[in-house]
From TrEMBL:
This is Copper transport protein. GO terms for cellular component: membrane. It is a multi-pass membrane protein. The chain crosses the membrane at residues 50-68, 117-134, 140-156.
Amino acid sequence: MNHAGMDHGDMDHGDHGGMEDMCSMSMLFTWDTTNLCIVFRQWHIRSTPGLIFSLAAVVLLAMGYEALRALSRRFEASVDRRMSALPRDEQDAEITPLLAPGSSHPDIGKQGHLIKAVFYGVQTFYAFMLMLVFMTYNGWVMLAVSLGAFLGYLFFGHCTSATKDNACH
């Protein structure tokens, strides 16, 4: 049967619809960066400079997670100090910018817990996003996440035990 006269619509069989530039998703460890996408289709690495920039961004993202954890710990310590200082003399208590001065013990506890819950939610989201970045199974990206965690701990983990429970968050 001769198919030469048949209308195939707008189908272009010559370039396979641009499939050679699609994101690749490996389910096995690899060092290959061809068509690597990190979490989003828009974060598509197509060149060596793009790879270097992306790896630097991943390092900074991982460092940011450690900075957020440090900020959360400082806030929690500040609330604890303020709560323990209230029964003695409210005038001597440290003033936390996120808590109104002159607040009562229950008010500080409720406000502090609400803000700590926000910190916890943001940290959990951030940790899972970093986990997705790590799960590209690309060795370069995995090293960048680990380097970012190392540098983040080095710069921001002064009062944190290095034996942290390494769950996703």
